[in-house]
Design goal:
With about 425 residues, this protein is an alpha+beta fold. Helices cover about 25% and strands about 35% of the residues.
């Protein structure tokens, strides 16, 4: 056995070694001469050396185009088979563009390997691609209006959404001239989700210059919310750069039942259409279980409450409230209609606004520091409270007055 192995490896060993070396050389030559082709899609394109007054539609802040290219590559079989879209990047030098409509011809020199284990320069013999056009545009900068849309989601439990400030924002944006012009007309949309705020986020918030009653809560919007999508950046989110956005806040009303602590005057409305038979001489309100007369003024004696309004609003309007009963013939309406009325609402609104602006001014160094738009927001909040104003006899029981006319006497029967 030993003799056979000896003869196999050592007999004519010089010739066998030469044959082995020749075989290895032939194998390496054949292996390196085997080529293959492959089309790889969605290859990123990076642009460098862009003129300072130019940009490209779809150019991301990192210098990569949102538009991608497909390349058909030929070269060494083992390398071609291994290549994936994430292994290659196309690098374009914008300084070589002869015109704004730049017809790009990608060559081997434009290929950049993102895989350290792949040497594209020595492995790729040829490449081709369909027509790839890059359009250079004039770079302009402008202030784009931000459309602040109504919030989505629900306010935290125990709170009611009121409004937000500031009401207007802009985004200073640089980009292709044609896209900037579109956005100046259309604006950028922005909204926020109330469901992202928890009750615990609001519980610890105390008074402020515009929240001295501690029931209107000012919630400072987190920085991570204050972003807008930029269409020509492939809808990438960009932080709002308007300085006013730094103090953007959302206002909530802490829900609570507030005692009115007043007896409300009761008035009778006599329609002109029935005034021949029903007028102040023929029909009068009489005192009873729920009505007493004080200084010739009928007052509703039942303890009442309000909710969905602020303490400040209630303190200003409570002495200007009255209940109006609509007198009507008994044959037309056995139970009379009624309504809650606010007397001189314009004057009350001015008082409410002046009170808030005075407190805001004291916190910002003077009344001139409160912008007109802020005053408009305060007026809107007052009017919203006016629309919500409802009388309650308990936490969830709305006031419902039952009254009727009998033999010239108007009786308040129940509530």
């Amino acid at each position: 056995m030993e003799t056979i192995l000896t003869r196999l490896f050592f007999h004519n060993w010089q010739q066998k070694l030469v044959a082995l070396i020749v075989a290895l050389i032939i194998w390496m030559f054949v292996n390196n001469s085997i080529t293959d082709s492959k089309t790889i899609a969605n290859i990123p394109v990076r642009v460098v050396n862009l003129p300072s007054d130019k940009t490209i539609l779809g150019l991301m802040p990192n210098g990569i185009l949102s538009k991608r290219i497909s390349l058909t590559l030929s070269g060494k079989k083992d390398v071609i088979e291994e290549l994936e879209p994430g292994d290659i990047e196309v690098l374009l030098d914008a300084s070589t563009a002869s015109q704004d409509e730049w017809i790009v011809l990608v060559g081997k020199k434009n290929l950049l390997s993102l895989n350290p284990g792949i040497d594209l320069a020595s492995s790729i013999s040829n490449l081709s691609h369909t027509e790839f056009v890059v359009k250079l545009s004039r770079l302009v900068t402008a202030k784009i209006p931000i459309n602040i849309l109504p919030p989505v989601g629900e306010a935290p439990v125990g709170y009611e959404y009121l409004d937000y400030w500031p009401q207007k924002l802009t985004q200073t944006l640089s980009g292709p001239e044609e896209e900037i012009q579109k956005l100046k007309t259309r604006g950028l949309d922005f909204t926020f989700d109330l469901s992202d705020i928890a009750s615990s986020d609001l519980m610890g918030i105390k008074g402020s210059p515009d929240n001295f009653h501690d029931d209107e809560i000012r919630f400072l919007m987190p920085a991570k919310w204050k972003k807008v999508m930029i269409p020509f950046h492939n809808n990438a989110l960009e932080e709002i750069n308007d300085p006013e956005a730094q103090n953007m806040r959302i206002y909530f009303l802490r829900k609570q039942v507030l005692p009115l602590e007043r007896e409300i005057p009761i008035a009778i409305f006599y329609p002109v259409a029935t005034s021949e038979t029903i007028n102040p001489e023929t029909v009068k309100l009489v005192p009873g279980k729920y009505v007493h007369i004080q200084n010739n003024i009928p007052l509703f004696t039942v303890p009442l409450y309000v909710k969905d309004v602020s303490k400040l609003f209630l303190s200003i309007v409570r002495d200007n409230l009255q209940i109006a009963l609509v007198a009507a013939p008994q044959k037309e309406r056995e139970i009379l209609e009624w309504s809650l009325e606010v007397v001189n609402p314009s004057e009350l609104e001015d008082t409410y606004v002046a009170y808030l602006i005075t407190n805001l001014s004291s916190g910002t160094g003077g009344q001139s520091a409160v912008p007109k738009k802020r005053e408009m927001l305060i007026r809107k909040r007052f009017r919203d409270y006016m629309q919500r104003l409802t009388l309650y006899t308990g936490p969830d029981q709305k006031l419902s007055i039952e009254s009727s006319i009998d033999e010239g006497k108007l009786h308040l029967l129940n509530y």
